[in-house]
Structures are given as structure tokens and as C-alpha cells.
Design brief:
The complex is a heterodimer of chains A (792) and B (243). Chain A has 792 residues and is α+β, with helices and mostly antiparallel strands. In chain A, 53% of the residues lie in helices and 20% in strands. Chain B has 243 residues and is an alpha/beta fold. Classes of the chains: A alpha+beta (792), B alpha/beta (243).
Chain lengths: 792, 243
């Protein structure tokens, strides 16, 4: 090994503490990049393979009922490669040993296995056989949750009849990677499953012989960007069959969630590491500039010996490269582990036939390259200083550090009362510009990560509160297969354990305002409803207008309407007569495009007499009543679905919130590493530069704690100011995060509480004090007498 | 006093012709050298004396290819150093010059042997580091770090480093300046021995006029000008010199 490389290794060892701190920050950045980047590739690849395997449809059309023989015109549209008619209905599920009725989506499959659009992957048992008509394939997650195995029999309420079906196997499908039941926000396999019936059997039980109520389709590759136009043509072709919705793949619920998650991963894989690596580059810059200054005479000597500028520049760059390589390698290893942890978390939400954490060479190499690149960048200024050093000049003592007053001294009312200690602190902070700016930047980045973490936690808590404690207040929602009369309300009110029953009417319609239109639905409520209480954005209750709509803010923005405007509504079912109605209020909701109206007003609008789609119930707390209620509900064939609010909230708490706290802990750890690394580096560099000064203070009688307090004050000033600067940055980062996740169907509120800012500041100070512990130890250990004798 | 020194006997290894060196500009310009002309003969031990600020360090830096001139020419054999590019100056320093500094300038975290290796690894025809250290009497201290050596020992390591490159010329900047009297004489003896055994050309600058007695030729400087050049036909052995 050459003598210069030995010198390099010993320089690294001598500065191990500082370099480890910097390496820590680099490692965090690369871990984020490799972890998030690998997760992005894992999910993207799993999605691509799964969609190809199941021949995922490019669009679906939901309608009332269409003869299959009439679908030829759709199949022949230019750009349409293939269509598949399907029967689909929601159904209640009656399992023995499970007291509550469960929810299911029933879909038809060909009697014989063949490649179809939105195909299934059979995991256990087999596809349908010729032995029985009433065979069923059930979704794997539902089967697992209830320990259902092939060969068992269960009951489904199909077309108002309790029907026994034989479980021939379990399956999954790419159209339900993210499987949501009615009213749910997170997958709830205990309460919702998908049930695949033979097409001929489905035709029988639903009286759909030769008909379908859903058309799936695939487009030619060249026609994919014309999907909206083709869907409009299909809608007009099928208008007489009662088209409810047309859904391109981009808007398909499961695909949307999955694609948004993938896109979010990519955004974070770019943003988060950039923050950390920028801090690392700055901090490394401070360190290496100091090292060059410290080794000025050595560098001059080496030049005098005949080392070229290029050789010495590369010698110093090697130090940066070493730090970058170490941080990069550690980051790659930890990033792979992080991706594995994220894969485990994703398996709770997304269902794939195969989903493993893979080793993506490109991602790892890029992470390593970025790490080394960032370190080289951080080392450039210090290394380039070498080029400027003339050998003769390097032999002369360095020019004394600039003295003179700093600008703060002009603020005499502040400056005059300061002790000499505080004056030293402020002068050092203001004179060491690059070091101070690096410290401020690092503190700002750390603070913005903390603010982001707290705000996301507060936002989710507020979302749950708003949605499930203020807006939706029922204990249970019953939905009927067909619209019922007021008798259903009376019947529901008499069920065991029911304290209160309120009706609702859901009317699916198209909203139009000028050239803009959007499909959605209006929920009719009684005027003083207590179980669904529309709210404004401050969670104040809004009274449902007597005549007019209370429209969700998101839908109002899509249509470009405000209170006082009118919109045209065209029901998708029934008489389908367009009506112009006023928008009276804007209601806020973070889920769906909800629109509310008075139930009687809505009934009149759609020419119905006192119709209801379902009933919301408030229950007493008696467990015996609850058991009796479930028994009764199971006997109601007209019931299409039952949703218990407690189950929805529990599902969110079990999945989203629990993992959110893991994520928050990791973010706090990362922020801590940034604070810690930056403060330790800056303080130790400052200490190294001021050894003579420190030694002189010791001779004068200062103790190590007093000297430590000078450095602590400097680092706290930078930490606190940097944290305060970082707070609005964190707010903006959270806005960007939320914006990337928000969609028409799901929005996260932007919430800050005093706790957000206080906790951020408190943690920043705590990290600063912890980092100072190491610095204080160094002060205690410094041989200050030697420092007085030492020459640089 | 004549500004042009007699070149003396022997081949000129280095020649300065009408060299001036100014630092700074305008009202704050400092003229470190004014119209200097002299030569260094091959194989001689040349001592340049003068008080602080007389320009001797500037001359040494220019001869060592570490500083440029404002006017004039500097010849190394038949090559004009003032026309050299930075890369050529680097090569000149690497292949032809051995430098000894007043404060040794050793690399603190390299051992004595490694400090010598730092020079030999880039030299075309170096001596073995161990041999160089043996020449200066430090064969038993090769694995010691500078902090474990006395001032005199550190200076001897620095001399070993300079000599190990097998340079044509040794340039010594106040090599005894940081040493006590006894150690300083030992170092001076070492330099004289190197000149005699290895035939090195040595240029030594010092403010200590007593050391001039050991030289073959003495150049006296004051205020950036040569005030005297004197041959010394009978150099005094370093042991007999006192200051």
C-alpha cells in the first residue's frame, strides 16, 4: 500500500467519529432510495405479471341488464379487441358459526376454464367441475379469515333466496388486488368476500338467462389513449339497457389504489433521499474543508516533494469516496431489508399470487452511485482548495482568521448586555458561514421530516374522527337489494337492540354543469338525521336543505359550481329524466363524492313514492340484543349488505394506523440521525479549529463544562433556528405527500396541531443535547496543554 | 556592491539572471527580490545568509520551482524554469529537488519510514527508505511516528526524505532554525557528510551567519539584493562552529 493511502486510512481513523456521523446520514438517504425504489419495482413487477396472468380488462361497463346477443355492436367498435359479458350482484353471506351476516360480491365465470378477461388464479381446490351446478370459488382472503376449505358448503342470499353453494376452491384475481367491501376504506376479508359462480348457475338464480349486467373489455394497444371516447360510444350504444357507469382501468378501484401507491413510492424514492444526501454533502463539505486547512503544510510539503495537483486532489477525493462507498453499501443492505419490511406490510393490503422482495441490481447500483456522487460533490470544495494552494504559500503560516465585528453587534440594545461567552458564541456562529448554513440546512431537513410525520398522524386521526364520529354516526347500515317502501323502516326499527332507525335513499346519477359532467350518487336523508350528519370543513353540522343539494366540495370543484348555482342531474335508473336542481350547501367529506338531499325531495325528483335504499341503525350496547339482531338479519332475504361502523374503524386501526406508527418511528429515527450527525460534525470541527482558543480558556480557568456550554449554545442556536425554518418546509412536504395520494375517492385532510410544532422542537432539542454529549466527552478528553504546543 | 555575483569554479547547475520578485500590487506591493543574478555550481555547498525579510526564502522557493518570478530568468542546466508549465515544475520538483524545511513538515500520521516512502514512491530512481534512514543514523527509529521523535530526529527524517529521492540538488530552509545548538550542529554535520559522500549540491539559507563558515561559498543578502558573494576555500567543520 502506498504511503499516501496509509495516510488516508489513518486520517479516516483519526476522524472516525465525524465520518461515521456523516456516513450515518448518507446511509439513511441510500436506505430510503433503495428501500422505496425496490418496493416500487417489487410492486410494479408484481402488478405487471399479475395483470398479464389474469388478462386484466381495460374497461368495464355496468348496466341494468343487456342481452348478450346485443353486444355485437360493442365488440365490433374499432379499437375494441375483446369483450366479456358478466353477471355481478352484491349478496349477503350466511356462514354457520358466524353470527353476523357478511357481505359478498357475486361474479359469474365460464363453466369451463378458459382464458378470459379478469381471469382468476385458483389457489386451493380446483376450478368448477361438471359434478354440481352450485359450485363456488371464493376469494382466498375471505376463506382464510373464516377457515373455509374446498369441500365445505355455505349459504349466500341470492336474488332474495337463501342458496346453498359448494366451495370447490379458493381464488384470487387481479381486479381485486386491493379488495374493498361496500363502505370500507381498507380491506376487510373477515366481512367481505368475492364469490365466483358458474355463469349458467348465475343466469338461473338471478333470472339473467342470456343476459349480463356488466361488460368487460380489452382495447387494442393503439386505441388505449382513446378509451374515454370509446366508452362514450359504448354508453350511447347501450343507453337503452340502463348504463350505470363506465369505468376505464385507470379508475378501477383496486387498480387506482395500487397505481397510486406505486406512483407515491417513486415520488418518495426521489424526494426523501435527496434531502438526506444534500445534508450529507454539505456536512462532508464542512469537514473536508476543515481537513484541507488543517493539513495545509502537509499538502504544501507533498507538492514540494513533487506530487501533482491532480494526485493530491484525488487523494482528498478518496476520503469522500470512502465515506460514500461505506454509506452506500450500508444503505443498500438496509434498503433491501426495508423493502422486505414494506413487502410484509403490503401483503396485508394487496393480494398477489406471488409477491416477494427482489434484489434489483439497477436500484442498488444507482443507490451506490448516488451515494458516491454526493460524497464526491461534498468533497469537491475542500479538494479544490488543494489546487489553489501554492507550495510556497502553504509553507507560510496561514493568514489569521478574520476578526472584526459581526452585523449583530450593530443591534446595540441586544449586544451590549451580552456576556463575553455569548459574544463568542454569536461571533463564531456568524463568522463560520458555511458551517452555520450547513447546520441550518440539516436542522431544517430533520425538522421537516418530523413535521411530516406528526402531520400525517394528525391527519389520519382527524380523518377517522371526522368520517366515523362526526359524519357517519350509525352503528350499522343495512342496504337492500331493491328499493323498499316505508315498511322496511318500521320493520328495521323493530329489530332487537335498535334504538334508532333512519332511512336513506341512494340515487345513482350523472351530474352536469355546462360541458362538465361526473357520475355519482345522491344520498337522501331525513332533514334532522342524526346518524349521518353532513359537516362543513370545520366539522360543524350542515342541515340537509329542504329543496336542493348539499354537495361535496370535491364534486363541486369538478363541476365548477358553488352554493347558489344549479346543476342538472340525470338518474341512471328509473325514469332517467334530467332535472335542474340548486346547490345549496357545500359539505365536506374525505371519502367519496357524497351529495346529500332531503329524502322526500329526492324521491319526488326521481318520481318515486317514499322509496328507501337502506336503513341506518343506532344500537344499544346489550350484547344479547346484538346477537339476536344478527340472527334476524340473517333471515332477511331482501338484505344486500350489512356494514358495521365498528368493524370499519377497527379495520383501519388494525392496518393503517398500526403501520403508520411504525413509519413514524422510522421517520423520527432518520430525523434523529440527521440532527445528530450534523451537530456532532459541526461541533467537533469547531472544536478542532479552536484548540488553541480552548486551551487558552482552560489556562484562564474555564472548566470543560463551561467550554462545553459555549459549543452547546452555538449548536442550539443553529438547531433551533434551523428547526423553525424547517417547520414550514415540513408543512409543504406534507402538502406534497398528501397531494400525491389524494384522489376523487379518497382525500387526506391537512391538519396541524400545536403538538406538531412543539413535539418537533422538543425532539430537535433532545437530539441536539444527545449529540452534544459526544462533544462534551471530547472536550473532557482533549489534552489542552498539548494543544498550546501543537502547530498545525 | 555588485549585483552580479561571481559564478566561481565548476559547472553552473542553477543560474538566476536579473530576477525580481514582487508580491502584491500598487501601493501595497512588496519587492522581495530586486534584480538578482547568481549561480549555483554543481557539487558545492552554498549558504545564503541574511536577516529576516532579506529575500532568501523567496530565492529558495524560486530555485525549488515553488514560486514564480516577476522579472528575469532562472536556468536549471540549460532549461528555463520561468517557461515551465505547472506540470513541468511538478516534474522538476519531483525529479531534481530535495527540500528540507525549518519545521520538518513531516506527515504526522506516518512513521519515519513511511514519511520517506512518500517521497520515494514518486521518484524515478530513489534510494531505499531504509538506506536513507541509515544514512541519517535513524535505522532504529523507522517505525516511530513524528510525535515520538525529538526535533533533531524529525529533522533527520526530513533530510532522509529529501535525500532518498536522489535529487540533483538539496534545498534547505533554516534546517537548524528550530533546533538547539548541539542538535543543530549534528544536522549540519549530516548535510556536509551528504555533500561529501553523495556529491550532492546543497543550497542552505539561514539567518545564522555562523553557519556560513561550513560553506564552500557564501552569498549575503539584504533587502532583496545580493550584497556580497564570497568563496570559502577552507570550510570549517561543523563541530568547530559555535553560535
Amino acid at each position: 500500500m502506498t504511503a499516501l493511502n496509509r495516510k488516508l486510512l489513518r486520517d479516516l481513523k483519526a476522524a472516525a467519529g465525524m465520518l461515521l456521523a456523516i456516513t450515518g446520514i448518507i446511509t439513511v438517504g441510500v436506505t430510503c432510495y433503495v428501500g422505496l425504489g425496490s418496493s416500487y419495482h417489487n410492486l410494479s413487477e408484481a402488478k405487471r405479471r399479475y395483470y398479464a396472468q389474469c388478462r386484466m380488462a381495460d374497461f368495464s361497463v355496468e348496466l341494468k341488464k343487456v342481452p348478450i346477443s346485443e353486444l355485437g355492436a360493442v365488440a365490433e367498435l374499432p379499437g375494441v379487441a375483446e369483450i366479456r359479458p358478466r353477471i355481478q350482484f352484491f349478496a349477503a353471506v350466511d356462514l354457520e358459526g358466524v353470527r353476523e351476516p357478511l357481505n359478498g360480491l357475486v361474479l359469474s365465470l365460464p363453466d369451463r376454464a378458459k382464458p378470459i378477461l379478469d381471469d382468476v388464479v385458483v389457489l386451493r381446490g380446483s376450478y368448477f367441475t361438471d359434478r354440481r351446478e352450485n359450485e363456488v370459488l371464493i376469494s382466498e382472503s375471505f376463506a382464510k379469515a373464516h377457515r373455509i376449505t374446498p369441500g365445505q358448503r355455505i349459504h349466500l342470499i341470492l336474488n332474495n333466496r337463501r342458496q346453498e353453494v359448494f366451495v370447490v376452491g379458493t381464488a384470487i384475481s387481479s381486479e381485486f388486488v386491493y379488495m374493498l367491501g361496500p363502505g370500507a376504506i381498507t380491506p376487510d376479508p373477515k366481512h367481505f368476500g368475492v364469490f365466483y359462480l358458474k355463469h349458467t348457475f348465475a343466469e338461473d338464480v338471478f333470472d339473467f338467462s342470456g343476459a349480463a349486467n356488466q361488460v368487460l373489455g380489452r382495447l387494442d394497444a393503439s386505441a388505449r389513449d382513446r378509451c374515454p371516447e370509446l366508452l362514450r360510444r359504448m354508453e350511447s350504444l347501450l343507453a337503452s339497457y340502463g348504463v350505470f357507469t363506465t369505468t376505464p382501468l385507470a379508475d378501477q378501484f383496486s387498480n387506482r389504489f395500487l397505481s397510486q401507491e406505486i406512483q407515491g413510492l417513486w415520488s418518495f424514492a426521489l424526494i426523501t433521499p435527496t434531502m438526506f444526501l444534500a445534508v450529507a454533502a454539505l456536512v462532508l463539505n464542512v469537514f473536508l474543508t476543515r481537513l484541507t486547512r488543517q493539513q495545509r503544510t502537509v499538502i504544501g510539503t507533498l507538492k514540494a516533494l513533487g506530487y501533482s495537483d491532480r494526485e493530491l486532489f484525488w487523494h482528498l477525493q478518496k476520503l469522500g469516496v470512502a465515506v460514500g462507498l461505506l454509506g452506500g453499501l450500508l444503505g443498500c443492505a438496509l434498503g433491501f431489508w426495508l423493502a422486505g419490511a414494506m413487502s410484509s406490510m403490503y401483503r396485508l393490503f394487496f393480494q398477489f399470487p406471488e409477491f416477494e422482495n427482489q434484489w434489483w441490481l439497477g436500484t442498488h447500483l444507482t443507490g451506490l452511485g448516488i451515494s458516491v456522487g454526493c460524497s464526491v460533490l461534498g468533497s469537491l470544495r475542500g479538494s479544490r482548495a488543494v489546487l489553489r494552494l501554492h507550495p510556497a504559500e502553504a509553507m507560510r503560516p496561514a493568514a489569521p482568521r478574520q476578526g472584526g465585528a459581526v452585523w449583530l453587534e450593530r443591534v446595540t440594545w441586544f449586544w451590549k448586555p451580552l456576556s463575553s461567552g455569548w459574544r463568542m458564541v454569536f461571533r463564531n456562529t456568524l463568522r463560520g458561514r458555511v458551517r452555520t448554513i450547513a447546520g441550518l440546512f440539516a436542522a431544517a431537513m430533520g425538522a421537516s421530516v418530523l413535521v411530516n410525520a406528526w402531520m400525517m398522524a394528525d391527519s389520519m386521526t382527524y380523518f377517522l374522527d371526522f368520517q366515523f364520529r362526526h359524519l357517519l354516526r350509525s352503528d350499522m347500515d343495512l342496504s337492500f337489494k331493491d328499493e323498499r317502501s316505508d315498511d322496511a323502516l318500521l320493520e328495521a326499527a323493530r329489530l332487537p337492540g335498535v334504538d334508532k332507525a333512519e332511512p336513506y335513499l341512494a340515487v345513482a346519477c350523472t351530474f352536469r354543469k355546462g360541458p362538465r359532467e361526473k357520475k355519482g350518487s345522491i344520498t337522501g336523508l331525513i332533514r334532522d338525521a342524526q346518524l349521518t350528519v353532513p359537516r362543513d370543513r370545520r366539522a360543524r353540522p350542515i342541515r340537509v336543505p329542504a329543496a336542493g343539494l348539499a354537495m361535496s366540495r370535491t364534486l363541486a370543484e369538478i363541476l365548477g359550481v358553488k352554493p347558489g348555482d344549479t346543476v342538472t342531474i340525470e338518474p341512471i335508473q328509473g325514469l332517467r329524466i334530467a332535472r335542474t336542481v340548486p346547490v345549496c350547501e357545500i359539505a365536506d367529506s374525505y371519502y367519496g363524492l357524497t351529495v346529500y338531499a332531503d329524502i322526500h325531495y329526492l324521491s319526488r325528483l326521481v318520481y318515486e313514492e317514499s322509496a328507501l335504499s337502506g336503513v341506518q341503525l343506532a344500537l344499544d350496547r346489550d350484547p344479547a340484543h346484538l346477537a339476536a339482531l344478527y340472527r334476524e338479519l340473517k333471515r332477511l332475504p331482501a338484505l344486500e349488505g350489512v356494514a358495521a361502523r365498528a368493524d370499519v374503524v377497527a379495520g383501519i386501526e388494525e392496518t393503517v394506523l398500526k403501520h403508520q406508527w411504525v413509519v413514524i418511528d422510522v421517520m423520527i429515527l432518520f430525523a434523529g440521525i440527521v440532527f445528530f450527525g450534523s451537530i456532532v460534525n459541526a461541533s467537533l470541527v469547531s472544536l478542532a479549529e479552536r484548540q488553541r482558543e480552548v486551551a487558552t480558556l482552560r489556562v484562564l480557568g474555564y472548566g470543560p463544562w463551561q467550554i462545553g456550554s459555549l459549543l452547546l449554545r452555538e449548536s442550539m442556536i443553529v438547531t433551533v433556528i434551523g428547526t423553525v425554518i424547517g417547520m414550514p418546509m415540513g408543512y409543504l412536504l406534507t402538502l406534497a405527500t398528501i397531494w400525491s395520494y389524494n384522489s376523487e375517492m379518497f382525500r387526506v385532510p391537512i391538519i396541524t396541531t400545536p403538538g406538531t410544532w412543539l413535539w418537533t422542537l422538543a425532539l430537535a432539542v433532545l437530539f441536539g443535547l444527545t449529540a452534544h454529549g459526544f462533544v462534551q466527552r471530547s472536550i473532557h478528553r482533549t489534552a489542552w496543554l498539548d494543544a498550546l504546543k501543537a502547530q498545525e | 556592491m555588485s549585483q552580479t555575483a561571481a559564478t566561481g569554479n565548476g559547472t553552473s547547475l542553477l543560474r538566476m539572471e536579473n530576477v525580481s520578485r514582487r508580491f502584491g500590487m500598487g501601493a501595497v506591493a512588496v519587492e522581495a527580490l530586486r534584480d538578482i543574478s547568481f549561480g549555483v555550481h554543481e557539487g558545492e555547498f552554498l549558504v545564503m545568509v541574511g536577516p529576516s525579510g532579506s529575500g532568501k526564502t523567496t530565492i529558495l522557493n524560486i530555485l525549488g520551482g515553488m514560486d514564480s518570478v516577476s522579472e528575469g530568468r532562472v536556468w536549471f542546466r540549460d532549461e528555463d524554469l520561468t517557461e515551465f508549465t505547472p506540470a513541468e515544475l511538478t516534474r522538476y520538483r519531483r525529479d531534481s529537488i530535495g527540500f528540507v524545511f525549518q519545521f520538518y513538515n513531516l506527515v504526522p500520521n506516518l512513521t519515519a519510514r513511511e514519511n520517506v516512502m512518500v517521497a520515494t514512491e514518486i521518484s524515478r530512481d530513489p534510494m531505499a527508505p531504509e538506506e536513507a534512514l541509515r544514512l541519517v543514523g535513524l535505522e532504529d527509529r523507522t517505525e516511530h511516528f513524528p510525535s515520538q521523535l525529538s526535533g533533531g530526529e524529525q529533522q533527520r527524517v526530513a533530510i532522509a526524505r529529501a535525500v532518498a529521492k536522489n535529487p540533483v540538488l538539496l534545498l534547505c530552509d533554516e534546517p537548524t532554525g528550530a533546533l538547539d545548538f548541539t542538535t543543530g550542529k549534528r544536522v549540519l554535520r549530516l548535510l556536509v557528510d551528504l555533500k561529501q559522500t553523495l556529491g550532492k549540491t546543497i543550497v542552505l539559507i539561514t539567518h545564522n551567519a555562523a553557519i556560513a563558515a561550513a560553506a564552500d561559498r557564501v552569498v549575503r543578502l539584504r533587502s532583496g539584493q545580493i550584497v556580497e558573494v564570497r568563496e570559502n576555500p577552507s570550510p570549517t567543520p561543523p563541530e568547530e562552529i559555535t553560535w
